[in-house]
Design brief:
It contains 6 helices and 4 strands; from the N terminus they run αβααβββααα. By secondary structure, the protein is α+β, with helices and mostly antiparallel strands.
Amino acid sequence: MSAAANPATVAECLRVGAGFSQGDRNWIAEQFATLDARLAGFHADATELEVSVKDREARGQKVTLECWIAGRQKIVTTSAEEDLHAALNDVRDDLRRRLNDAKTRQEPRHNKHLRDIPQPQGELDLTDDQEKLPAADPSRADAETA
């Protein structure tokens, strides 16, 4: 994953949903600031975060954090922690884990060379390059072909 020209940050991408007020937004963004390093690989205009809480401060409250990144499936994390601060930390940590897992699934495994070097994007047109390729050396043919 290459660095984005306009990297996503929690402060830029976070929306507060049901159960939170705009006054809560800065406090929540501070709690989620550790996500900035993971979100930096994505473009800010293609990334959205929304946090909401159902039955705030009640015994059965449920905090939900949703993450939309263009070209990927939506990620939804939830927490039923009774303490709001603990619930926010829980959904934040779960989102970080799931973003890490998604990144790991997309990268080539066991081959640092493939991760570091950009891969070709299309098929080569060999018609123009045929003259540039060296001719095969018949003395080096495999035993199976002879």
